[in-house]
Amino acid sequence: MTNLNAADRLLLLLFAVAVLAGPVILAPFGAGYPDLLQKFAIYGLFAIGFNILFGLTGYLSFGHAAFLGVGSYAAVWAFKLLSMNVLPAIVFAVLLGGLFALLIGYVSLRRSGIYFSILTLAFAQMSYNMAYSVLTPLTNGETGLQIALDDPRILDGAGQSGGLPLTNLFGLPMNQTWESELLGMTVQFNVGFYLCAAVLILGFYAALRIFRSPFGLMLRALKSNQNRLNYTGVNTRPYALAAFVISGMYAGLAGGLLAATDPLAGAERMQWTASGEVVLMTILGGAGTLLGPVLGAGMIKYFEAILSAINKAELSDLLSFLPDALREPLVSVLALFVGEGWHLTLGVIFMAIVIFLPGGLVEGARRAMRLFSRGASDAPSEERPAK
Amino acid sequence: MDPILKVQNVNKRFGGLKALDDVNLTVERGTVHAIIGPNGAGKSTLLNCFVGRLTPDTGTVMFDGVSLLGRKPHEINQLGVSRVFQTPEIFEALSVLENVMVAALAHRDGAFRMNAWGALDAEAEIRDLALATLEDVGLAQRRAMEAAALSRGDKRRLELAMCLVQDPKLLLLDEPTAGMARADTNNTIDLLKRLSEERGITKVVIEHDMHVVFSLAHRISVMAQGHVIVEDRPENIKGNPKVQEAYLGGAHA
Ligand SMILES: Nc1ncnc2c1ncn2[C@@H]1O[C@H](COP(=O)(O)OP(=O)(O)OP(=O)(O)O)[C@@H](O)[C@H]1O
Ligand SMILES: [Mg+2]
Known about the structure:
The structure holds two protein chains of two kinds.
Chain A: H1 6-20, H2 22-26, H3 34-57, H4 65-81, H5 86-108, H6 113-132, H7 136-139, E1 145-146, E2 168-169, E3 172-173, E4 177-182, E5 185-190, H8 191-211, H9 214-224, H10 226-231, H11 236-261, E6 264-265, H12 272-285, H13 292-307, H14 312-318, H15 324-334, H16 342-356, H17 360-372
Antiparallel strand pairs in A: 1-6, 2-3, 4-5
Helix pairs in contact in A: 1-8, 3-8, 3-11, 3-12, 3-13, 4-5, 4-11, 5-6, 5-11, 8-11, 9-11, 12-13, 12-17
Chain B: E1 3-14, E2 17-28, E3 32-36, H1 43-51, E4 58-63, E5 66-67, H2 73-79, E6 81-84, H3 96-109, H4 124-137, H5 152-164, E7 170-174, H6 182-199, E8 202-206, H7 210-216, E9 219-224, E10 227-232, H8 234-237, H9 241-249
Parallel strand pairs in B: 3-8, 3-9, 6-7, 7-8
Antiparallel strand pairs in B: 1-2, 1-4, 4-5, 9-10
The structure holds adenosine-5'-triphosphate and magnesium ion.
């Protein structure tokens, strides 16, 4: 943690504490269960990585879900061939995500702007379709790739018996959960979540280092004026490619963690909607900021979990205090925004943020802080070194 | 005679327009060479052929013994050629100091260096160098400002600082004082003069401001409609009838 200034060290510390205390902090919001907590951490990582490309260089990729999917497949293969220990699976997922990003980035970065975005989208859709068709031996097509009893697992498969083995960290199973009562709530401490949380904190730390490095400065310069950077003696292509590969490795890591907490991989993870989602997360939270992507990912995954679980009957119950004449039409309108239709809510929120808070949630927080502490100097937190 | 830049028979067409018509130009090492001429004469186009923005249709451009043709902009910069553009090209989203640090890093680390783990804060040498250069151009006070917020004249001085911090062998200046108040113009002239004396940086300066031209230049080339019509020492330029005709016949200067 040396090499960071005091403000950044504080930021990292607060971030780590908040993440580790996640099960306690989020329990009152109905979000303290392992499955959702894991998603927060995993998609937070995905968005942090995406932000290193999009937030710092301005290159908008619409194909990053491909690397997430590759990471998942790689991890499941590691579970099948090597061991149910998550460590080799995660390493394998990161490496393959990075390798894939190197190939796709090398070609896509020959163009910039909208053409770059279209190229990444095309590559990702190609990967998605191939996972369903010609690559079936590797991906198991529509069924998805799963572990099986008779997988070789050369490191720890010998003498296996009984049910399917569990993903674990040196014997500690991912699905193990301790429950405890705290302030009248049931808090769940889950091994899988704490693995994801530890990786998220490391990933955040690495992103912080990258943001504050000479490399990070070059990426921001690239976003600001690529031409000037060229005439200043910098070959911008390898810089952009490095950022692309790093973000691909984060995506692979996220995919690997998805598989580590639930050992299966399907092609739908690579679909363009999944690529679009990480774009939304990053913009919603605040592109180019350190905390924004994590907040954006959390917000989207939270709304997805809460809203998609509500159905028409529950809505009707919720509004039972209203007179029938008012309730019926209200319920039928609101029903469009929940359950399957929660994407509609997401769309509305997204539009509102882009129009009223172009800097995303972080910008909103900053404005709120300024309101509260008028006159005080800018918060020590992060971003906008110029100002 | 030790030419650092040698331009021979350069032609460039834009559709039907002959922007450069058989241009020859030799710049001696350590001198300031001014290019003047009416609007649209082809002055900026000529500079574009030196930095890899344009490739001439025919002709050669030799810098310090190597051809610049077909080289990428970053390669040409790494050879030691820096340029201030006619419309300021800076990193608007970065702070003034960061702008200069980018240039200093590019000079020290070359066209690409993967330094994603080290801290920018730890680059004390680069920071001090950038600060000293900002001091030189008179922008040290504004180092923490976002570059976008600078006035047009200050943006130009920032761009100059970005070039100077790279200690170039050849500095190309496309109207370095345009948009500056008189006092700033004089400061810039003093700065450029001092640089010539202290570091001996060779410069090619495009200028409309004759006060600037005659204070700085050792030699002057006059361009009109893609031609270099006269090349001579400053004292011989003023009275030259061809020059007067070019300015009166062409657009206003
Ligand atoms: N990329 C281009 N495409 C087409 N025409 C161009 C291009 N660049 C310059 N021109 C034309 O070439 C001619 C010379 O332009 P140039 O910018 O070199 O003039 P200049 O001498 O720098 O003039 P000024 O003093 O106004 O800057 C002009 O007629 C201009 O319109
Ligand atoms: Mg010009």
